[in-house]
Design brief:
The protein is α+β, with helices and mostly antiparallel strands and about 240 residues long. The protein has ten helices and seven strands. The chain is elongated. The structure holds iron/sulfur cluster (2 copies) and FE2/S2 (inorganic) cluster.
């Protein structure tokens, strides 16, 4: 059986800088990066901290930086990313590290709230179901971003987030665009005002890293472009004031 040479980021016990520590892990058929981290934690060093839940690409909790690139680790096969038998595993960028491979996602989700990324409707239980035609343009635009699992891969890959920590980021803006196109939502005026500021959609430089790396094949870049158009139209109509 061959062996993988794995370097894993470990936090310093005293709150200092942290460093990479090397481990040898046996290669297995169909092994994922999450399997490698789990092997280290269960067989070599139980103090290694990392986060996962579903292991099937649903929960969004297992994202890490793998050989320099943010990825979901439960669906990333070692054979695809470590052809030379080497892996370097670090926490996601652009987020504070809690310990080892675990990042604090509070700021990431706070930005979803700032972008008014929650559904706002006015129908009651006595109203009939809203009927949204499957083929309508709004339905297609809303569906395009709805499968986001909140993994943070796009946020960690975005240079603008690194330069401008207040920037709402691709995931929160993708969520806002999904709701802007939801025919049942009634909160668009306030939502467009929330995403039109300096930290909102106009800060995006269209680098596309978010779209290239999103494991769910969502295009936050396209969502942000849509928000730029919608915010500009709302501004022309005087709807962003007050
Ligand atoms: S397209 Fe915009 S949001 Fe996406 S990575 Fe580039 S700058 Fe960030
Ligand atoms: S848009 Fe994609 S990369 Fe970003 S949080 Fe959602 S699923 Fe993850
Ligand atoms: S563990 Fe849930 S998406 Fe990877």
């Amino acid at each position: 059986m061959s062996t993988l040479s794995v370097r894993v980021f470990r936090s310093a016990a005293n709150g200092g800088e942290g460093t990479f520590v090397g481990y040898d892990v046996p290669r297995m058929p169909a092994q994922t990066v999450l399997d490698v981290v789990t092997h280290i934690q269960r067989r070599i060093d139980p103090t290694l901290a990392y986060r996962f839940a579903c292991r099937v690409g649903m929960c969004g909790s297992c994202a890490m930086t793998v050989n320099g690139r943010a990825r979901w680790t439960c669906r990333t096969h070692v054979a695809r990313v470590a052809g030379d038998g080497r892996l370097e595993i670090a926490p996601l960028s652009n987020l504070p590290v809690v310990k080892d491979l675990v990042t604090d996602m509070t700021g990431f989700f706070d930005k979803w709230a700032k972008a008014r990324g929650r559904f706002e409707g006015k129908a009651t239980r006595r109203d009939d179901f809203a009927r949204v035609a499957p083929g309508s343009a709004e339905r297609k635009l809303a569906d395009a971003g709805i499968e986001c699992i909140g993994c943070g891969v796009c946020y960690s890959s975005c240079d603008v987030v690194a330069w401008h920590p207040g920037y709402l980021g691709p995931a929160a803006l993708n969520r806002a665009w999904t709701l802007v196109n939801d025919a049942r939502d009634t909160g668009n005026r306030a939502r467009l005002a929330a995403v039109a500021g300096d930290a909102g959609c106009h800060a995006c430089h269209t680098h596309m890293s978010c779209t290239e790396r999103c494991p769910k094949q969502i295009s936050p870049t396209a969502a942000i472009a849509g928000l730029k158009r919608a915010a500009a139209l709302a501004a022309l109509r005087g709807e962003l004031e007050g």
